[in-house]
Design goal:
The chain is α/β, with parallel strands linked by helices. It folds into two domains: about 180 residues, Rossmann fold (3-Layer(aba) Sandwich), CATH 3.40.50.2000; about 170 residues, Rossmann fold. Helix content is about 40%, strand content about 15%. Strand 6, helix 6 and strand 7 form a beta-alpha-beta unit. Helix 4 packs parallel to helix 5 and helix 8 packs across helix 12.
Amino acid sequence: MILPSLAAAGMEVMVARLVRKLAARGHDVGVTCIVEKGILAPELEAAGIRVSLPGAQGLVNPAWLMRLGAHLKSLAPDVVHIHSGAWFKGVMASRKAGISRVVYTAHGFIASEARIETVLNRIAAPLTNHVVSVSEHLAEVLKARGLAGRDLSIIANGIDLALFKPGSDAREIRRRFGIGEATLLVGTVARLEPIKNQAMLIDGIAQARAKGVDCAVVLIGDGALRADLAAQAQRLGVSGHVHFWGLERNVARLYPELDVFALTSDAEGTSISLLEAMASGVCPVATHVGGNPAVVGDAGVLVGVKRPDALADAFAALAADKGRRAALGRAARAHVAARFSDEAMLDAYERVYEKCVRS
């Protein structure tokens, strides 16, 4: 596996889980990071997974190609599986090492992606055996941008249904922040970065409270925008109802405490946190972008991008109808169980690897 780092974010969590489960099936799997190892690396290393950092930072200095190529040549893997943010480097280093079996998974794109990134991806695409998209919408984007490669398939991210499940009676979030039982507790799990647009979520909470809805939000995760988001909440007069949890490795225990899970991203592939929340039986509200409609299906509420007014209306309706929230939570769990299981994802990736080896 090659990716920028093992940071605590959706793609990285998914890759770490994929690595563990492939290893459990008897495969020899390692991870190569090209920027930094990241917070998830020690956990994988403790489980006996090889995590490497060969010094492939930067792009202008060609030394990265020599180092990454030499590293891959020493490993001599049957298949190199590259993930978003490392496509060009991973492909070029694989070719340098004489490795021709290359898989790439696109986890998402943003509209404002740097032009150089687009150019480099177009160089990498024809040198890739198999391109994987995590959603049908993203597959169409890949085709439109000429990045579908020689072979394209769709493999949705999978969730461990035994880990993410409903039923907890804990009140850890409410106790920490003094949130009353009658308050609609909205939560989100994401890095605090522009693409995730938590600013829309805070606006939505402010507008809902202005309409008389007793609601609060907890933001689980951290990032560059924390101070800006806190300032926004202060400016809107809702700082007492916008709570920052920070980074959390054991998010599975927190999801069942939420009344509503909100994902207000400007763009998404197949959101890991959205799947985790739904598997935990939480009613989802998400923006109508990327893979979100396919993930939510009929088991939640979709709102327009940058529409905090629509978000506020959704919160108001769900606050007033506990029965509907519960029904949507049950439907969400069933929907994820039917379409987004870990085992289905693992089986699909194994078929891709086997196809590459046979070729």
